Prior knowledge:
Elements: H1 12-38, H2 47-58, H3 64-71, H4 75-87, E1 91-95, E2 103-107, H5 109-130, H6 135-153
Antiparallel strand pairs: 1-2
Helix pairs in contact: 1-5, 3-4
Amino acid sequence: MNPKPAATGITSDQCAAKLMETIPTIMQFFRAEMRRNASTLPVSLSIPQFRTLAFLDRHPGASLSQLAEHLGVSRPTASNLTDRLVQKNLVSRTEHPQERRHVVLTLTEAGKYNLQQTRTMTSAKVAELLATLPEEQLISVVDGLAVLSKLFLE
């Protein structure tokens, strides 16, 4: 691959390296903040449980296999994780109408509420940090995220 230099003299390889360095730091912040916020809610969530709720929010009616694939875990691990969320009344687990061996996973109202509260509190903390940036940098961040979103969703 022949990296193409950008207008500022940065190559695509350098940009990729910076992304690979920065994204884990941001995700670590999100995870720590979500853990902290989850402890203030009536039903405390681990990060895998939160990721499960977020996935089911985006993919209502997902199967256990789809959830396991998303989380990068085995089906038995995803099943155990789901069982704990069902016990907490955050997820409903029903048989697939056409295939009894498959389950359909959806968020309960309590699951939607817990997910939304955690997201709201975490977003507020991120907004607090971003408020320290001048408007030009905020615009740059939003523009950069729009570019990345379009690029990685294609």
